[in-house]
Design brief:
Number of helices: 18
Largest sheet: 2 strands, antiparallel
Radius of gyration: 22 Å
Strand content: under 5%
Strand order of the largest sheet: 1-2
Mean pLDDT: 82
Helix content: 55-70%
Length: 493
């Protein structure tokens, strides 16, 4: 039994043929751009922008967005090639299984939990904050008590008294509701998803256009702060300002770009993958990057860094509008209501993505069979969804949002690095394989993608490196204790 045994391309393609029969090539480049924008614009923009400005870069968070976009574009080109070559569920997990063997496939599958499951928890926590904002500022009712909507590791002064969190019940609630919807098989229709996309983009454009006149030039001076160390209210140290501050911001706001890889999974349903996949991936990234830079410029101009550190919280955008954009409270209300709907769709997609990865790993024997068991009536991997509910619910209920957000970023960056390496390896091992789209300038583009992603990981700081190392150590224990012995590829019957 070799931990480096690879799943043959022929086997993967036969699985793709068996599991995805009947898919029609109906998507155009514009369809893919719309899909990408819908997947990308979510909690990251409305929550992580303020966190990056407060902890890492101040106004130069805009430069962090540019660095993150470059890393995503380089990885996106690699995703485009792999998704058109190996069109099967599992994403980076499947690509790694075909190119670098079972052990690294397990590592990336385990790592994808940080992207999907922990990412869903991050958005759930943001949903909780905006729910409170809705109750107080829109419906004018009492907020949910601090103890019941914050992690035990968080504390704040409420009415002159220091209060500590106990459990984030709203975040747990939304994760549970959407997990149960997935078990029943309820999916967003293209119509509903289209409405949510229009809402998200409309919010961003409205804030940019209306907020521009409220920019205070003082808040942008200096644009790149001098390098210092900032200690947040949780006692965590951050490199603020200068080069490392921008890199730290890039690693933080990178969460705002997560989702563009969803475009790559639609390769088999695209009319002309060779032309449309790069347009869809890079087009959606380009549109979102422009919106993100303008949005960050306006937000950091409307409110100063100290506001985001002390008053903004997770609902920073609505709070900044209500406090600094006089006469536009309606916009803050609109932001709160629409973002709650948008966050719900993002959580749903992330939970769905996690169940697909677990389902693939269960089918391969790397996880217990329970993960690949399908409900007799609803035809969904319901047991996997219930297990995901417990995992995501625990993170959402008991871990602070900034910590899980950075864990999601570092996990996804690690996945992107392996995807970039996979392109190089596959070019060497399978030179004659049919490729609908080819990443240009190989190996320069994949290597550049690896370097940029590594720089963003470095910018996230040692606490997040440590969390990733511990997470991977736990994954290795599970692999050698269970997965290696039960792998269907290594233990054929």
């Amino acid at each position: 039994m070799s931990i480096w045994k690879k799943k043959s391309i022929a086997l993967l393609l036969s699985e793709a043929s068996d599991s995805e029969k009947g898919l029609k090539r109906t998507l155009t480049a514009w369809s893919l751009i719309a899909l990408g924008i819908g997947a990308i614009i979510g909690a990251g923009l409305f929550v992580r922008t303020a966190a990056a400005a407060a902890n890492s870069a101040g106004p130069s968070v805009t430069l962090g967005f540019i660095v993150a976009a470059i890393g995503c574009a380089l990885a996106g080109l690699c995703y485009a090639e792999l998704s058109s070559s190996i069109p099967i569920a599992g994403s980076a997990y499947t690509y790694t299984y075909a190119t670098m063997g079972e052990f690294l496939a397990w590592i990336i599958g385990w790592d994808l939990i940080l992207e999907y499951a922990v990412g869903a928890a991050t958005v759930g926590i943001a949903w909780s904050e905006y729910l409170n904002n809705l109750l107080v500022n829109v419906l004018h009712t009492s907020p949910i008590p601090y103890e019941l909507c914050h992690s035990p590791f968080q504390s704040a002064v409420v009415n002159g008294v220091t209060v500590s969190g106990m459990i984030n019940l709203p975040a747990l609630f939304i994760v549970a509701v959407l997990s149960l919807l997935l078990i029943k098989g309820t999916q967003e229709s293209a119509f509903v998803n289209g409405i949510i996309v229009v809402l998200k983009v409309s919010i961003v454009i409205l804030i940019i256009v209306l907020g521009w006149q409220f920019i205070n030039p003082v808040n942008h001076n200096p644009y790149i702060p001098e390098p210092t160390t900032y200690v947040d209210n949780q006692g965590l140290s951050h490199s603020f300002g200068g080069f490392w501050g921008i890199l730290g911001a890039a690693g933080t706001v990178f969460f705002a770009f997560i989702g563009f890889d969803a475009v790559s999974t639609a390769a088999q349903e695209t009319k002309n993958p060779k032309r449309d996949m790069p347009i869809g991936i890079l087009g959606s990234l380009a549109v979102c990057t422009v919106l993100y830079i303008l949005f960050a410029h306006v937000l950091t101009g409307v409110a100063d860094v100290n506001f985001f550190r002390t008053k903004g919280g997770e609902a920073s955008v609505a709070a900044a509008i209500n406090e600094f954009m006089v006469g536009h409270k309606w916009l803050g209300d609109f932001v709160t209501v629409a973002i709650l709907a948008g966050f719900s769709s993002v959580i749903l997609v992330m939970l769905l993505g996690q169940s697909r990865v677990f389902f693939s790993m269960g089918n391969d024997g790397l996880l217990p069979k329970v993960f690949s068991e399908v409900h007799p009536k609803y035809k969904t991997p319901y047991k996997a969804n219930l297990i995901i509910l417990v995992i995501v619910g625990a993170f959402a209920a008991f871990v602070p949002g900034d910590i899980v957000g950075d864990m999601t970023s570092i996990g996804t960056l690690f996945a992107f690095i392996l995807v970039c390496i996979s392109v190089i390896v596959l070019r060497k091992t399978e030179p004659d394989m049919k490729r609908e789209f080819k990443t240009p300038l190989v190996p320069l583009v994949p290597i550049a993608g690896v370097i940029v992603c590594l720089l963003m990981i470095l910018g996230l700081g040692w606490p997040n490196w440590l969390r990733l190392i511990v997470w991977m150590a736990v994954g290795c224990i599970i692999y050698f204790g269970y997965s290696k012995k039960n792998s269907k590829l290594n233990n054929p019957k």
